[in-house]
């Protein structure tokens, strides 16, 4: 099924993982036992995932969870302070649903708290008279037609209903309703609302009460996905703001935009603003069709990965983003993925001022277009992957289980792969906003960033292509396919490798690639900086990749790495293929054989 | 327009405004619309507005008294809580409104606001700044404007 090239591609990712992240996997791997390491790696990974999920920094709450918690809080305060349920509710509302705050304030100065929130210690009777004037309509009524809050200020029932109805239709302020008498501040609680409001208004009121429990609490927020009714409780001080709701929407808890690691909230806001300002110029990018670079017929992008094959008879294979031939993809840049990089057209010769300005304006739009297109394409790629994930879960998995005689429980690796693709498309998308705001003059940083991003792009392409296209063969097979287990190993391996790569990429970008010195500082950078310390986070430990790698990567330093002072330890990009030290196979870009397939 | 569709409360308020006016305040409904009032407030003594006669308009919206009346100065006035268009920054005309308040209480509050300008809760930034940086000079300007625009001529 695979051309030799495809195999190499898979090799590359695995070796890349090893090379970059061996510092992350504290395995006894100096001996370079590749197969053992791989197995070890796998179990390490699954453990990682579980511990990750256990130490989640947030809890998802359904409407009934919220009601239950709210009831419990009200009950607790009511019991501890020996006050009515309604009074407890008024207190909690006022102190933003913090039980401890209510307790603190109450026991520090009950009298003052009562005054502030409008709770009387003893209710006051209405004036004892046969007829009383209503302070709103100025009519007189017999006292049994009058109603009063705990303060005893009488108003007729019609005026009360108008008062309560107006307050509820004015919005959530009705939760803090007070007696209409301007000299009185006594609270009008839920009991009065139940008595006086229409059914519709009662529902609105209880909805406001529920919303208040989430919105007035600093630790909770609603999931911003349209129509979603879940809320999220966040553990303050957690290291990541990313939250994934039960509706599967991921968002940033801090700014409530969609999840945007590794980019910070301020950059996201800037980028979104920029996209709004430029939206008219950019509409064409969102069009889903481009002319085939060879036959010029319009080709529609109906898949997630960027590797496009024109329809027969042309069948030209090209890259959706740069429209270059897929076979040469990367070759022209010395064997690595570079279509993520923006290169401004170099202008030579003398320009007059207006020409230069026009040129600069054109360049700046071109530059933005470059990043925006990649941002937007990864976004739509992600949407496509989400749809594919759902169709996989809802129908295809069953079909595949049937065709390949595999229990569905054995096919989880496919769902894992698609989940990973969805997540990586999101990260990759935001790296383009990150790249756009990287300063032009931070040359070393930019070089290194583009290198990492290019590798991420390439790795994800392989995973996406494997899950999208290679799987197709097994889905359409008439009988169980012999090499399905091979496919399983490959896809699961790519998934794990890509997950590690992206997790480390996110961490590196979040620390602002701060270990990369300016390009003038090569000597220092050479000593202190390695992709391991940059990306592994834990640094220090040297894995087998380095051991194997050193022999094969002495002379041929790629120019970019040399300029940014990473030559000694960077995964060396070599022109052409090398030979794996262990199995004598032709290797990937990093002079390392793919552990996954080398057996 | 007759008073046919007016709630009894508005009729009672109007009668009382006419029969027992508050000192320094007059309010009378317009002939065509009983919800529209022509208002005059005398500048309070010992304020920069002393000696001035200030015209205002007051309108009772359909929702009154559940919603507050709409009030605006027609006479130009130099005051940190009143803007060029005569709009007034006063809490009881907004979120502190209660249906148990009345036209009379609103107008008394506006009169009190003339005696005690509050530059910390301004509607007109320039005037408020003037008031805070050089109160004596701001008061002079207010007096000047009172002479120029509110002399009652
Ligand atoms: Zn009444
Ligand atoms: Zn009261
Ligand atoms: Zn949700
Ligand atoms: Zn954010
Ligand atoms: Zn073609
Ligand atoms: Zn490309």
Report on the architecture of this protein.
The complex is a heterodimer of chains A (599) and B (153). Chain A is mainly α and 599 residues long. Among the domains of chain A are: 62-215, Zinc/RING finger domain, C3HC4 (zinc finger) (Herpes Virus-1, 2-Layer Sandwich); 292-350, no CATH class; 379-568, no CATH class. Chain A has helices at 4-21, 34-54, 63-81, 85-94, 99-108, 110-117, 157-170, 190-196, 199-215, 265-286, 353-403, 412-437, 443-476, 484-510, 522-528, 531-536, 544-552, 559-563, and strands at 58-61, 131-133, 140-142, 146-147, 155-156, 220-222, 231-234, 242-244, 250-252, 289-291, 298-300, 307-309, 317-319. In chain A, the strands form 6 sheets. A 3-stranded antiparallel sheet of chain A has the order 1-7-6. In chain A, strands 2-3 form a two-stranded antiparallel sheet. A two-stranded antiparallel ribbon of chain A has the order 4-5. In chain A, a hairpin with a 6-residue loop joins strand 10 and strand 11. In chain A, helix 1 packs across helix 17 and helix 13 packs antiparallel against helix 14. The radius of gyration of chain A is 32 Å and the shape is elongated. Mean pLDDT of chain A is 76; it is low at 1-54 and 517-599. Chain B starts with 7 loop residues before the first helix and ends with a helix. Chain B has helices spanning 8-19, 103-115, 125-133, 135-149; strands spanning 25-29, 36-42, 53-59, 70-73. The longest helix of chain B is centred in the C-terminal third of the chain and has 15 residues, at 135-149. Chain B is globular, with a radius of gyration of 16 Å. Chain B has one domain: Ubiquitin Conjugating Enzyme, CATH 3.10.110. Chain B is α+β, with helices and mostly antiparallel strands and 153 residues long. In chain B, helix 3 (125-133) packs across helix 4. Chain B is built from 4 helices and 4 strands; from the N terminus they run H-E-E-E-E-H-H-H. Chain B is 32% helix and 15% strand. A 4-stranded antiparallel sheet of chain B has the order 1-2-3-4. Classes of the chains: A mainly alpha (599), B alpha+beta (153). Bound molecules: zinc ion (6 copies). The site of one zinc ion has 7 residues of chain A, from loops.
């Amino acid at each position: 099924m695979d051309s030799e090239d495809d195999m190499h591609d898979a090799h590359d990712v695995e070796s890349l993982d090893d090379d970059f992240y061996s510092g992350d996997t504290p395995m006894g791997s100096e001996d370079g036992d590749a197969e053992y390491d791989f197995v070890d790696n796998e179990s390490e990974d699954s453990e990682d995932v579980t511990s990750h999920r256990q130490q989640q920094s947030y809890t998802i709450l359904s409407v009934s969870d919220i009601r239950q918690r709210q009831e419990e809080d009200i009950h607790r305060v009511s019991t501890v302070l020996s006050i009515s349920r309604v009074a407890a509710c008024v207190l909690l509302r006022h102190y933003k649903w913090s039980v401890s705050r209510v307790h603190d304030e109450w026991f520090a100065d009950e009298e003052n708290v009562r005054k502030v929130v409008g709770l009387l210690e003893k209710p006051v009777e209405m004036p004892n008279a046969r007829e009383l004037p209503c302070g709103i309509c100025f009519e007189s009524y017999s006292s049994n037609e009058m109603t009063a809050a705990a303060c005893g200020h009488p108003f007729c029932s019609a005026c009360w209903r108008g008062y309560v109805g107006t307050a509820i239709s004015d919005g959530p302020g009705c939760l803090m309703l007070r007696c209409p008498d301007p000299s009185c501040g006594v609270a009008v609680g839920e009991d009065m609302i139940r008595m006086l409001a229409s059914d519709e208004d009662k529902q609105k009121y209880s909805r406001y009460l529920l919303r208040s429990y989430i919105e007035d609490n600093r630790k909770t927020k609603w999931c911003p996905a349209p129509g979603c009714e879940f809320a999220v409780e966040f553990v303050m001080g957690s290291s990541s703001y990313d939250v994934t709701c039960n509706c599967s929407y991921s968002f940033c808890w801090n700014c409530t935009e969609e999840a945007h690691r590794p980019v910070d909230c301020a950059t996201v806001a800037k980028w979104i603003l920029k996209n709004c300002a430029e939206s008219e110029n950019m509409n064409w990018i969102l069009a889903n069709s481009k002319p085939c670079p060879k036959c010029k017929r319009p080709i529609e992008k109906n898949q997630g990965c960027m590797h496009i094959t024109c329809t027969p008879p042309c069948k030209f294979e090209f890259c959706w983003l740069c429209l270059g031939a897929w076979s040469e993809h990367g070759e022209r840049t010395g064997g690595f993925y570079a279509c993520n990089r923006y290169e401004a057209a170099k202008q030579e010769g003398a320009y007059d001022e207006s020409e230069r300005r026009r040129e600069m304006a054109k360049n700046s739009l071109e530059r933005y277009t470059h990043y925006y297109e990649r941002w937007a394409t990864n976004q739509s790629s992600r949407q496509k992957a989400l749809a594919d994930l759902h169709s996989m879960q809802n129908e295809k998995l069953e079909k595949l289980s049937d065709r390949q005689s595999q229990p569905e429980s054995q096919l989880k690796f496919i769902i894992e792969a698609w989940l990973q693709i969805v997540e990586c498309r999101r990260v990759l998308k935001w790296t383009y906003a990150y790249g756009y705001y990287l300063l032009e003059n931070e040359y070393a940083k930019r070089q290194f960033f583009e290198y990492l991003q290019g590798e991420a792009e390439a790795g994800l392409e392989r995973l996406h292509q494997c899950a999208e296209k290679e799987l197709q063969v097994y889905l359409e097979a008439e009988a169980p396919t012999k090499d399905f287990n091979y496919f399983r190993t490959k896809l699961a391996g790519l998934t794990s490798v890509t997950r590690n790569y992206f997790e480390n990429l996110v961490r590196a970008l979040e620390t602002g690639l701060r270990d990369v010195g300016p390009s003038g500082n090569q000597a220092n950078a050479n000593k202190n900086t390695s992709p391991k310390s940059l990306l592994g986070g834990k640094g220090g430990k040297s894995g087998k990749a380095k051991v194997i790698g050193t022999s094969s990567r002495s002379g041929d330093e790629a120019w970019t790495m040399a300029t940014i002072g990473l030559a000694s330890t960077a995964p060396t990009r070599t022109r052409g293929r090398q030979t794996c030290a262990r199995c004598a196979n032709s290797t990937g870009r990093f002079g390392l054989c793919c552990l996954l397939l080398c057996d | 327009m007759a008073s046919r569709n007016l709630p009894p409360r508005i009729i009672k308020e109007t009668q009382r405004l006419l029969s027992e006016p508050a000192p320094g305040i007059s309010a009378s409904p317009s002939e065509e619309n009983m919800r529209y009032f022509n208002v005059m407030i005398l500048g309070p003594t010992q304020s920069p507005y002393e000696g001035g006669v200030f015209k205002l308009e007051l309108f009772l919206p359909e929702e009154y008294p559940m919603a507050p009346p709409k009030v605006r100065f027609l006479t130009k006035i130099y005051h940190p809580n009143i803007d060029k268009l005569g709009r007034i920054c006063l809490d009881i005309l907004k979120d502190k409104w209660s249906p148990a308040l009345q036209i009379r209480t609103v107008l008394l509050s506006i009169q009190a606001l003339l005696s005690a300008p509050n530059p910390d809760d301004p509607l007109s930034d320039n005037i408020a700044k003037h008031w805070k940086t050089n109160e004596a000079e701001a008061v002079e300007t207010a007096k000047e404007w009172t002479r120029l625009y509110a002399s009652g001529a």
